[in-house]
Specification:
Helix content of chain C: 25-40%
Chains: A mainly alpha (about 350), B mainly alpha (about 270), C alpha/beta (about 250)
Low-confidence stretches of chain C: none
Number of helices of chain C: 11
Helix content of chain B: over 70%
Mean pLDDT of chain B: 88
Low-confidence stretches of chain B: none
Order of helices and strands of chain B: HHHHHHHEEHHHHHH
Structural class of chain C: alpha/beta
Shape of chain C: globular
Largest sheet of chain B: 2 strands, antiparallel
CATH architecture of chain C: 3-Layer(aba) Sandwich
Radius of gyration of chain B: 24 Å
Strand content of chain C: 25-35%
CATH superfamily of chain C: P-loop containing nucleotide triphosphate hydrolases
Radius of gyration of chain C: 18 Å
Mean pLDDT of chain C: 90
Number of domains of chain B: 2
Largest sheet of chain C: 6 strands, mixed
Strand order of the largest sheet of chain B: 1-2
Largest interface: A-B, 121 and 132 residues
Number of strands of chain B: 2
Number of domains of chain C: 1
Order of helices and strands of chain C: EEEHEEHEHHHHEHEHEEHHH
Oligomer: heterotrimer
Structural class of chain B: mainly alpha
Shape of chain B: globular
CATH topology of chain C: Rossmann fold
Distance between the termini of chain C: 48 Å
Amino acid sequence: MHMADALLSPAVGATLWAGTAAVGGYASKRLKERIDDRLIPLMGVLGAFIFAAQMINFTIPGTGSSGHLGGGMILAVILGPHAAFLVMASVLTVQALFFADGGLLALGCNIWNLGIYPCYLVYPLIYKPLLGKSQKQSRIIIASVTSAVVALQLGSFSVVLETLLSGKSELPFGAFVLLMQPIHLAIGLVEGFVTAGVISYVHGARPDVIESVSSSRPLGDRVSLKKIVITFAVLAVITGGVLSWFASTNPDGLEWAVEKAYGRSELPEKGQGIAPVLKAIQEKTAFLPDYNFKPTGSASEKEEADPGWPGIDAGTSAAGLVGAAIVLGMIVFVGMGIRAFRRRDT
Amino acid sequence: MTFDERYFDIGRLDRLSYKDTCVHRLDPRAKVIATVMFLFTVISFPKYEVVALAPFFLFPVLLMTVGEIPILFIVKKMIIVSPFAIFIGIFNPFLDTRTAVVIAGIPVSAGWLSFLSILLKFALTISAALLLIATTSFPAVCHALRRLGFPALFVSQLLFLYRYLFVLMEEAMRIIRAREMRSFGRRSTGMKVFARLIGTLFLRTVDRADRIYYAMLSRGFQGDVPTLKRSRIAAADLAFMAATVAFLAVFRSFRVTEEIGRIAQELFL
Amino acid sequence: MSHHIVEFKDVFFRYPDGTEALREIHFRIVHGESVGVVGANGAGKSTLLQHMNGYLMPTSGTVTIGDVVLTKKTRREIRKKVGVVFQNPDDQLFMPTVFDDVAFGPLNLGLDEASVRERVHQALSVVRSLDLRDKPPHHLSAGQKSAVAIASVMAMEPDILAMDEPAANLDPRSRRSLITLLKTFKHSKIIASHDLDLILDVCGRCIVMRDGRVVADGPSAEILSDRSLLEENDLELPLSLQRQVMA
């Protein structure tokens, strides 16, 4: 469930990157305040561990399909929220680079969805209270499963929101939610059981390890509920504010900014309200500007909604196709030319 | 993909990044910034844009050919991660059925256009990300991030992650093989076995972290991971950046593809 | 300056779980001496080495390096003098490239950039690995890794080298070149190993350990040819000597 660059609008991508960077900066600062030297290599090696562990598949009972380890929850339990968040961000960065999971712009979203929720929300608000002071296996299972399910539900719901806000997909909200949430409920349950299994195994085999590792974490238990709630409220307001500003200007906010910067987009004279502005920009930037989105049959509603589509021009569409073919042909030619040149060279 | 396939796949990409071509020699900061600008420009195109995206393929193709990166390898990696974007995008043709273009008498719906646009953007963004890491070693990317303002602590542990990635993947592979050898053909790993396997790997990892920490102390570690700055922005880097900016600006602002098409039509028809 | 460069005096060490790992360790090493430490698994060799640069502190007794008694305060000073080479180069080479790894020690010493580069160059050329400088450790062979691990320690210009199983995991040829390399070093050396032939070849003196105690200490040629002493301590004659006996 990695968000992908291709589904993102620049506004949504940039906003989530900004949010993620802010949290990352905060986490680094908090860790630096009272860091134990031991933590840097430990974080790095545990990141590599999560990465390697995620490459191992296991069979989900009764289905025959396979799942893998989530990671965020285990890290939070071992390292505390700040270090766990940074490690999770690193793991996702390496995955984005080496596996191209999602892409680099969507990385902000993915760190948000898979890092912030488990480390900063679910761990302190669900895992710790549910576990309490006991280390009984049943408690570990309940806490881990609940946490994993909630974290993944939040994560997948965010994917839905991020995609819809970006406006590249036609999926209606309800259908999208129905598509994402149940699948992730199942994945969450499995992940939760595996997390519980790993934690109890380590607890049973070497109880000293979890203690010694946790003792080297700087401020494991000092994350207060109040702070989290306030931080999230502030982040939500900022994010909401920025996004709605973009949205009110244009569904593709940055595109509008780019247009402005390039000076191609003039506002219409009768610029009352947002709708005409939107329309004007849409006309300037839509695929082959002179197209008409002709209603097909029953979709007459849409015609009323989009009364301003200009008439169709078969000439332009042909020009686009011919142009694309020529451009791609030239690129292939350039590529092959360089390759041939290189080969002769060596 | 099985564990082994992923392991060799990542190893191959890693090895490519240590090649010595003029793309590899560019300053990593220049490549990181150029890639980010490229990505933003590509996804800034509106939903139904298709033909204007065509010229942007020049960027990955140049990096790939000059950087001597095998094209099939990159394409294969792209296909492996494509399902999510395709899965979400494929709904568009069914939900947005207004006719947008009529090509040779066949009406093409807006949904197909937006789906095609998603696919093109997917190919451009993913190939750009893969080519960044295929032409820049991971440590170099990290140093670039550090000098672009990422927190020192984050970058330090990211470098440790990279250093021990291959070590731990090999360790995981040994554990998996040992298990397979005793499982007598039952291929799949159940949840319980999996948890124990991960637990073992975890314990070994923590022990390793201790040994590494000792090795660091032995060489005077005092809490900071020092490294020497190694790269300086050179004329070639500036030229590369300038060319990228010019390329992106021109093809984002002017509808070059259609103009070429129109000229071609006038010439030949 | 004392010519005793390493001195262990009545050193005892107990792990937090109660295991007595070192008991009454007493020995001196003089300048330029090469000392092998042998013994079965669990005899206390690694624990002994970990006292050399203060990773572990004696429960009682004193460790003196040069003129400095090992304490929590002097630990940092002592780490500059004693270079420890680990058994597993993957633990020793923790930086992402060979250059960064070899530069790690000198940078921590606070040297300026030019001196750091000079030291890295020097150390890598000693182990004939200059061409590896920009490689990441995971692209190196086991032999290359162990050479670079030694370089990373040599770059700190220590007075004493302490090595834990330097030849483990090496193929015969890499092992041979390691031995040749070790022989060229003028440093005082203390090498813990199961590879008795290597000890016989490199070290003039040999210490045998058992259950945390030193049970024998003397010239390697004598100790390592004493079949009954070795067998008592779960060791056996070096292969080179076995051959001589048979012939």
